[in-house]
Amino acid sequence: MELIFSRKQEERAAVELDDRELAVRARSGDPVAFDTLVLRKTPAVVSVARRILGDAEEARDVAQLVFIRVWESISRYDEKYSFNTWLYRIATNLSIDFLRANRSRERAHGATLHLVRRREESLQDEATRGLEAAEIAALFEKVSDGLSEKQKAAFVLKEMEDLDSKEIAAILGCGESTVRNHLFNARKALQKRIRRDFPALVRRRKP
Q1: What per-residue confidence (pLDDT) applies to 55?
Q2: 51/80 Cα distance (integer angstroms)
Q3: Distance (Å, rounded) from C-alpha 32 to C-alpha 39?
Q4: pLDDT score, position 54
């Protein structure tokens, strides 16, 4: 009974700690700190994986792998750096690996409907505005398959996770100029595919 009570006290105390403090404790072997991180960060990890993969079930599978990798690698976490950046790098890399495996089996999926709705306002022609939800989902699944894994990851991290170029560069392991290049090419590719494959949508937006 005392052990159960002690565990509950530790859990309540852990909730008050920030991510970096929890990660440092987890690095020292504190299971309560690690469990708290998993509970706190699972929604965000599932979200970014789902936006890259376009599939909720696969995103949950990737999230499980992410936290296995985190547990295996936590001893190497350096608290001088953001825990979120470190976690997102693991999540993004595993999502990219999973997406590449899917594409090799011709089972790649596009990004989510929410991604399209957020991004459509930034497309020059705003071609997808006003489409029904089912139309948007089908459209983006078609046009996003032309993006490379890194382009899609950069796009998701920028547009959906609101990360800046410096953070994205750290996550993807590249320079900020490369991130900007990925974003530019992703936007350009989306516009080109929409204009080529769905010209009626472009005409719909013209006065």
Answers
A1: 84
A2: 29
A3: 11
A4: 81
* Distance in angstroms (rounded) separating the CA atoms of residues 33 and 27: 9
- As a residue count, the chain comes to 207
| Cβ proximity of 186 and 156 under 8 Å | no
Angstrom distance (rounded) from CA 153 to CA 150:
5
Burial of 145 (0-12, 13-18, 19+ CB in 10 A): middle
Instruction: Please say whether the beta carbons of 92 and 172 come within 8 A.
Output: yes
Residues in the chain predicted with pLDDT less than 50, given as ranges, are 2-3, 5, 106-133, 137
- Which domains are present in the chain? 1-108 (1.10.1740.10), 110-207 (1.10.10.10)
What residue type is 43 in one-letter code?
P
